[in-house]
Each structure stands twice: as C-alpha cells, then as structure tokens.
Write a structure and sequence with these properties.
Structural class: mainly alpha
Number of helices: 4
Order of helices and strands: HHHH
Largest sheet: none
Helix content: 55-70%
Distance between the termini: 31 Å
Strand content: under 5%
C-alpha cells in the first residue's frame, strides 16, 4: 500500500514498522547466540528487574522519538523549529494544511 498510495499516514506507519522489524530481527539474532543462552538467569534472583525496566523505558522512548521524527519528516514540519523544545508553542508541530501554511508564512516561505 505504501508504494501504490501516496499518503503521509502510511509513510509514518511504514517508517516505524520498518525500524521495529529491523530491531526485532537484530534481537532475534542476538538471542540465538550460544553465549547468550548460557548466561546466568538474573530473573530468578530478582537482579534483572531494574535492567528489564531500563530496557523497556529506553525502547519506549526511542520508539516515541521515532514516531515524532517520522511525523516531522513526512509532514515537512521539522525543517526549522525556532522554539525548541516546543514546536510553535505546542508539543507536536502542526500537521494540517492550514497550520503548515501559517508556520511557513512565519518562516517567510510561500
């Protein structure tokens, strides 16, 4: 669908699913290494909980950043945001045609 339909929403989903698929493939490969399976089980002693929590939070933060980055790239909203960490006074940049036109007018782009 991404190839035949030119829709920005599909482009964002395509970008995020592609990265997730790559990461899952890499995780599968690392998980099947002989040394990985011979490692001591940290979950039995309770020592691995902090590591699992840190890994989960890190993956969620990186994937959230990936979604925001894909939105900014495909909606051409991240070319020049002058008031970081906000985006023109809001948490996310404008994605409507009127919002982008207003932002481009502020930036001096017609």
């Amino acid at each position: 669908m991404r190839v035949t339909l030119v829709k920005l929403d599909l482009a964002i989903v395509h970008a995020c699913v592609a990265q997730a698929f790559f990461c899952l493939t890499a995780f599968y490969r690392v998980g099947n290494v002989k040394g990985w399976n011979d490692a001591p089980d940290l979950s039995a002693s309770g020592k691995g909980r902090g590591l699992v929590l840190l890994g989960t939070v890190t993956v969620a933060a990186v994937f959230g950043q990936l979604i925001v980055g894909a939105m900014m790239r495909h909606f051409d909203a991240g070319l020049a945001i002058v008031d970081l960490p906000l985006a023109y006074g809001k948490l996310l940049p404008p994605t409507t045609a009127a919002g982008l036109a207003a932002v481009n007018h502020l930036r001096g782009i017609s």
